[in-house]
Amino acid sequence: RAATLARGCTLASMIAFDLIVDDYDTSGSLSPGPGPRDPSSSALCRRAEGLVTWDSVYFARVATNGYEFEQTHAFFPLLPWLMRALSPLFGGGSCGVAVSGLAISNAAHVASAVALERLGTSILDDEVLARAAAMLYAFNPAAVFHSAIYTEPLFAFLSFTGCLLLARTRKNAACVAFALASLTRSNGVLNLIHLAFDFWRSVLTPALRQMRRLWGEEEEDGGDVNGHESAVARVKRRKRVAWAKGLATASIVFLARCLSVLAPTLWFQWMGYRTFCLGGGDPNGYYAANSRPWCASWRPFPNVYAFVQDHYWNVGLFRYYSPKQLPNFLLALPALGASVHAARAYVKGADDDATWTRKESLRPFMFQWCVMALTAAAVMHVQVATRFLSVSPAVYWYLARVGANEGAGTRKMRRFVSTYCVVFGLVGALMFPTFYPWT
């Protein structure tokens, strides 16, 4: 209910601000199709299309026309596919695409909040803490991106669901959810961290213990009887062979599951290579006659996504570190500051909160959070950090855990987090639909 209320409030605020504030960039009124919007369209269509700004324009364009241009490969295909499939339910055309995209994002956010609460209950073994974390997620500061046509809510739902299935030992089903997450966002491959930790905990650790038992003890050799091995030696050898076969089989299954999660990302890169390097399906015919520099560079496979991020968005290691970007670093400071606080507690802390972060069940989530925070701070456009980290369960679990403590400092922290989420969310609801800088 809280997530539904949060989506309703956010959508209402976005629509209200879009009505009363003039767009900073009027290109936000362009249709994702070949022509301008129909001025006679219904009020619902006008309101929905008014929220198609920033990256939403690309998703709507891909949903309508496919991957026409190289730069559209910065946006993974699952969300546009779903928008195209559902748009006829909402009248089709640019209106149907916009309304279906908004419906998918808001429904996915509500579903992901439910999945996060269930995941937290399973991982933390604490229903109260899991509920508090889910409430934080429902009203997270990146709320506008969880109501707009962006991939964060759909990705969160698929990732949280995959982790929940993995926690319930439904590993093949978890891999399906993780694979769909990889088809939604590039950071879907980070869900391999969960598979790796599960493999270590459920396969490698028991296998190593068994190996020490099989090879660590002294051979109880009863000698040869008529030139044959003793019964004890034969039993041990059979056990060692069975151990090796079991470990090999489990390792092959693990690698196959990892490949299934990676496959959508690899396929998406190959699709770009086929379209823009081999001329297959090039809708404009331009790329067939004009070879692109990334086509000859295999790192270790043709990576149109990396090239597009580098060439069109100037994404790269420390490229954002310049004085003019200081305001964007200030925007990202709360999200990155929480990440640093959690990392410090994990590494150096000695109190109960620090001990809590080191729980075995939490390790893959804390590690994933660390990788994402470092990537956001060092490689990405840093202002994206808030919404980028909004899909990490550990963020909400840690804040809920710290906020559950008593004391004046904790009360101040709770007030700051609550105020920050509301203010950041409202400012986003104003800036995003009116095409002011807010990404």
How are the SSEs ordered, and which strands pair?
Blueprint: H1 2-20, H2 43-50, H3 55-65, H4 78-86, H5 93-124, H6 127-138, H7 152-167, H8 171-182, H9 192-216, H10 231-276, H11 286-289, H12 304-311, H13 326-348, H14 352-357, H15 363-378, H16 385-388, H17 393-403, H18 408-431
Helix pairs in contact: 1-18, 2-5, 3-4, 4-5, 5-6, 5-7, 6-17, 7-8, 8-10, 9-10
Task: Offer a quick outline of the entry.
This protein has 439 residues and is an all-alpha fold.
Order of helices and strands: HHHHHHHHHHHHHHHHHH
Query: Quick one: how many beta strands?
Result: 0
Unreliable parts: 30-36, 218-222
Q: What class do helices, strands and sheet pairing give?
A: mainly alpha
The major sheet is characterized as: none
State the share of residues found in helices, binned by percent.
55-70%
Shape: globular
Average pLDDT for all residues: 89
Percentage beta strand: under 5%
Radius of gyration: 25 Å
Distance between the termini: 27 Å
Helical element count? 18
Provide an overview of this structure:
By secondary structure, the chain is mainly alpha-helical. It contains 18 helices and no strands. Helix 4 packs across helix 5. The longest helix is centred in the middle third of the chain and has 46 residues. The chain is globular, with a radius of gyration of 25 Å. The two termini are 27 Å apart.
